[in-house]
Amino acid sequence: MSRKRLTALALADALQGTEGDDLLTGTAGEDTLFGGLGHDTLLGRAGMDWLEGGAGNDTLDGNSGADRMIGGAGDDLYVVDDAADVVVEASGEGTDTVRSSLSFSLSRQYIENLTLTGIDAISGTGNALANTIIGNIAANRLVGGGGNDVLDGRGGADIMEGGTGSDTYHVDTPEDRVIEVAGEGTDTIVTGLQRYSLEGLETVERLNGTGTENGTFVGTGNALDNVLESSASHSRLYGGAGNDTLTGATGNDELSGDEGDDTLNGAAGNDRLYGGEGIDTLHGAAGDDYLDGGAGADRMKGGDGNDVYVIDHSGDVIVETRGAGTDRVIVSIDFSMSGRYVEALEMSGNADLTATGNALENEMRGNAGHNTLRGMERNDILYGGEGNDRLDGGEGNDWLYGENGNDVLYGGAGKDKLSGGAGMDLFHLDGVGDSIEDFRHGVDLIVVSAAWLGGGLEAGLEVGINGFFASGTAASGTGHGQFVFLPGTGWTHNPHLYNSPAQLIYDANGAEAGGETLVATLNYNAAVTASDLVIVA
Fold first, then answer.
1. pLDDT score of 162
2. Which one of 80, 144, 295, 469 is at 20 to 30 Å from 42 when CA atoms are compared?
3. Closest to 502 (Cα-Cα) out of 490, 488, 516, 484
4. CA-based nearest residue to 523, from 426, 437, 445, 453
C-alpha cells in the first residue's frame, strides 16, 4: 500500500490517517494526529499536540511543546524534546523506544528502550522491563531498573547502574564507571578497550573484549567465578580467584586461570594456556598450543596442531587423537606415554626421573638429573642430558645419546646407534647390527650377554686371560668362542675411498666357519682391547 502524506492547514487541526503507511504533519498550533492502521509517521511541529499512532510500527514526534504521544499496538518510536512531553504505552503492545534529547525516565511506562540524543550530559532511567538504554557523546548517567538491561554510554565518561537483573554494560572509555550491587544478577561488561580489569568491581561476573581488528585485548577477572571472552585478534585473559571460564578468539591467545578450578578454551591460533592452581580443563583446539595445567590434576586437550603439554601432577590427563599433529610433553614427574598419541617427551628440572615411550616413534630428552628413558617398539631417539642416565631403546632401530655423565645405554632389539657422549659409559649390546658412534678405549665399556653369544662365554669371564680375544686378525682356532676386533680405516688421499667403521665380531666356534656374529660396528678410529669387554649372563 502506498504512503499517504497529510498536512494540517489550520493552526489547530485534526488529521486522520488511512489503512496504509501515512505521513501526518501538524502545524505550529495544537494539532491532533491519528495514524490509524499501517506504519505511520506523525510529526506535530510546534504547539501542544496529541499524537496517536494506532496499530503498526509508528514514529511519533511532537516537536516543540508539551505533547501527548500514544503509540498503540506495534513497535513504536517516540521522540521526546520537552520535559512536559507525555508518552503513553500499554503493556504487551510491542517493543517500543524513546529517543530523548533531555533526561528521561521510563518509570511507570511499558517502554523497553531509551536512546539519548544531542550533546548534553543528561540521564536515562529504565523500568522493570528488560531495557536497552543508550547514551549520547556526553557524560551520561544510565540507570537500568529491574530487568535484564543493556546500558551503552556511547562516548563520554558515563556512569551506568544496571540495578537488579542480569545486565550488560558497554564500556568504551577508561572513564566509564559501572555500579553493581552484589546478588543482583549475572552481569557482563562488553568493551572495545585494549585493556580492562574487573578487579575492584567485585560484583560483575563476565567480561567480553571486542578489541580491534589487529589489536590485543588484555582482560582480568576478579574474585568471582568469571567468564572472560575475547573476539580481538589476540588476547591475554587472566582469571584471578574463582572458578573461571576463559575463551580466546582466532588469534594467538594467552589464557591464565590462576586460582580456582578453571576452564580455558584457546579456540583457533597458537595459544598458551596456563591453568594455575586448582583442577583445570584446558582446550587448545586448532593451532600449535602450549598447555600447562599447573597445580592440581588437570585435563588437557590440545586438538589439531603440534601441541606441548606440561605434566607436573600424577593425575594430569592428556587427550590427543591419532593424526592430530606431532605433540610433546614436558614432565617434572615420572611419566609413561603409553596409550597417549604423543610423540616427544622432555624432562624439566633436576629430579631423577623415569619415562617410558609408547607405540609411536618417540623422541625423549632427559634433564640435569639421573634419568631412566625407555623406548618401545618403534624407532626412537633418546637423549640422556646432564646426569648419569640409563637409556633403553627397546624394539626398533633406535638412536641413543648419553650426552654428559656416566651413562648406561641399552640398544635393545633392532639395529641401534649408541653414543655415550662425555663420561664413562657402558654400552649394552644384545642385537645384531648395533653401532657405537664414539667408543673410547680405557674409558667406556662394552657389555655383552653370554646367553646371546654362547661359545663358552659365561658371566664375569675375563676374555683376555682366557684367550677369548684377538685383534686385527681372524679367529685363531682356539676351539671355543673368540672376540675379534677389526680396526677401521680413516680417510685416504683417494677421493673414492672413504673411512670404514671398526668392527667387533664374535666367532662362537673360533674357526671362522659359520659361527661369526657382528657384535657391533664402531667409530672408524676406535680401539678395543679385551679390557674393554664385560661379559654378563
1. 96
2. 144
3. 488
4. 437
**Grid coordinates standing for 520?**
657391533
Residues sharing a CB contact under 8 Å with residue 410, sequence separation 6 or more, in sequence order: 390, 391, 392, 393, 400, 428, 430
Cell of 113: 528502550
59 beta partners: 41, 77
One-letter amino acid for residue 11 of the chain:
L
> What is the mean pLDDT of the segment spanning 51-66?
96
Distances in Å between the alpha carbon of 138 and those of 151, 162, 173? Answer: 14, 19, 12
Residues in the chain: 537
Helix (H, G, I), strand (E, B) or coil at 167: coil
Q: What is the mean pLDDT of the chain?
A: 92
**C-alpha–C-alpha distance, residues 98 and 101, integer Å:** 10
Cβ-contact 289, 271 below 8 angstroms: yes
* DSSP assignment of 434-471: -EESS--TTT-EEEEEHHHH-TT--TT--TTTTT-EEE
Q: Are 23 and 4 in contact (CB under 8 A)?
A: yes
What is the value of pTM for the model shown?
0.87
Distance separating alpha carbons of residues 266 and 264, to the nearest angstrom: 6
Does the structure show a pLDDT above 50 at 77? yes
The pLDDT of residue 479 is above 90: no
CA 419 from centre of chain: 38
| Residue 153 grid coordinates | 554510554
Cα–Cα dist 161/169, whole Å: 9
What's the CA gap between 59 and 43, in Å, rounded?
8
CA dihedral sign of residues 465, 469, 473, 474: positive
Q: What is the pLDDT of residue 1?
A: 43
Run of H or E residues at 331:
strand 328-331
In percent, how much of the chain has pLDDT > 70? 93
In 3D space, the residue among 369, 429, 372, 349 whose CA is nearest the CA of residue 357 turns out to be 372
